[in-house]
Amino acid sequence: MAASFTGDGMMFTMAVRADSAAEEATLAELFAERYAELVRLAYVLTGDNELSEDLTQDAFVKAWPKLRGLRDQSKAPAYLRQTVVNLVRQRYRRVLVERKHLPKPPEPVPGVDVSDAIDLAALVRTLPIRKRACVVLRYYADLSEEETAAVLGISVGTVKSQTHRALRQLAQLVEKPESRG
Amino acid sequence: MSEHNDFEGRLRDALRTEGDSARVSPDALGKIRGRIEQPRRKHSPKRVIAFGAIAAAAACTTAVIVVPQLTGGPDLRSASAPESAAKDSAAQQDNDTSAAKPSETEASGESRMRQESAAVPVLGELVVGEDVNVLLTADISGDTATARLSASKWDGAKWGSRQGPVQVGAAGGLAFDGRLSGHVCEFRVVQAPGKPATVRVRLAQQSGGACSDAYVYELDGTTLRPK
User: What ipTM goes with this model?
Assistant: First the structure.
């Protein structure tokens, strides 16, 4: 008995290997440059380290088919960031009664000025996911209103209004801690 | 206004402090690689070949694969693949009672597109066991080409660096005049129980010409040593 390999099959394997080496380098580079940053972004949004890593890894895997074919690799970070934020949003959308599952706001420390003791980051996570994403992208990721709108797939006007309402809500929570319950 | 800015400043500081407290696991890249590779490996022609080789090895004490041909000669100026002469090789291999038959790879439309980007002429490829790949390639120089063997190992996530290459036969053992016109008479691996695998190669300088004596190499992991 004998086996023969077609030339096409062999060249296909060879080409795949060459592609794989280049892709491997691209992936390693993207990972080194962006992974930690994206985990931190997801963590600020979710407050859960393990979930943040899972979502960021999901983002790399989901985005990879598109990223590997990108001619302009400078667009990769924005695409990955958008994927992470969308995955976080999807995660929260799955919970039908979102407010039931919101993290519990921190309790004020007795005898200490409330405004100093409040964990603002934890308060941000009590916001509905869209407001939260607006605040985190604007004040943590330092994105412009236009960039934030692009990541979230909403209008610049909506980013402005959502961010404004979120800040007002946070300020109220800080000033009147009893309203946090 | 300044109160508003002060609040935004506090918010930025709080979020940055929060972000900095996130931890990153050291094996994250490996996990991502693994998940990306999974679907790719599932459909890899190499896996098809590997499964065939395993099945053959289970049936025989000797596992043998291959024999591509260069009849007709590929036009390397356009970096296309060598022509397959499966019929010729099958006829030649039918006389070899120690040969086994793994799955035959089939050229898809995608493979045809991919091969156009491949510049290295591959004369043949073997899969030894489940995870070692041996390539027979042609190194073209002027109007001749030199056959070379190299091997690499799959570590579960990616192919390791290719060991070798080892020159097969004389330098310029194959004729090249814009097209490779030589002939691979034999390219196979012999795996006897308890002994290291050996790779056998015989070449003809011209298509249809006389075949050389066998060049035999012992395969130790991915290291190829002439015997």
Answer: 0.77
